[in-house]
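Running this now, will post back.
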Amino acid sequence: MEIKSGRQREAAEIVHYKKAAAVGRLLLGELDGPMNAIAVEQYLKKTRKELLSERDGARASLRGEITKFCKNNFEDVEAEDLVKLYDLLNEHRSEWFLPLTDFERRIGKFKVGVLRGAPLHSTIHISPWGLRTEFPEQHLVKDMALAFNDAVEIEEHRLTPYRTKSWRERKQQETRSEIAELIRRREASLRTCVLSCFNLIEAFINGVAWDYAHTHDLSGLSKDNRNVLTESERPVSIVTKLVRVPALVAGKDAGPLHQTRDPLKSFIEIVKPYRDAIVHASPFAAPDKFGGYDKLSKLYELNLGTVRKAVEVTTAVVKEIHQSVHGGGELPLWFLSRDADGKFVLTVQP
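Update: finished.
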């Protein structure tokens, strides 16, 4: 709508402030639902006196709030950018997913630290819960943690009372059913944890490669090295990626990992074969070049001790890559801490 009269200009200024403030509150998670509809037409029926009063109130109460919000969270975002974002969010009923790179191109760049270590390949998720980042590593580390915690809880606590019972007592129908349910849940958690360990490492190294490829000119690299980063010509094994991607990203001749040294050696010997036995379950043995192991034995004999080692190895691989590529800090900010008994600390988040 073309703004001509004084009334229209005053109404437009009120709408400008209110849209920008609504977006700021939505991003902070302060709204208990979608943003309200805000339009110039809502204010044109008011008297001039009412318009002027509301405009002055918006200037006094909202202008500073909006400026502070932009300054605290963004490098180059102003109220006009929040108004533009309001219109985009309104089309999506206040819930929107878009790549971080798209958000920063269309709206503006976040200040360092605001996204708490979220990588470049993150997706921005805006909803009444606030602005959150989502990326594969964030989900997979939680999958690993939840499965590990559940396995520990069942193995070391919930099954313990049954171990003091006699075999006759355990075989009573009610008790037998209780034990069977716990064992099923424990075994499902063990398998899930191993799968999540492998998936987390794969997601992490792929993310490191993508972030580098999208922020650097790769034309100076050999065709083979470009393919290691992008897989644009042919697939690359996870072991090859783990050895070569950190070196390429850091600009070094060699990276921190090698298949003959821990932690990558243990990843190859523990995490990968157990994961492969689950994903590619088969009575056939693995090919000799992959160790020739009995897949069914790996599947059936998986236990908490092995899974505990898998988690430690996974943590160590992430640590080595992170320190080589990013420096500073033992682990990425998104990696979960652990308490005294080894369980992961999971924060409450929708």
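The first strand starts at residue 96 and ends at 99. More later if anyone needs it.
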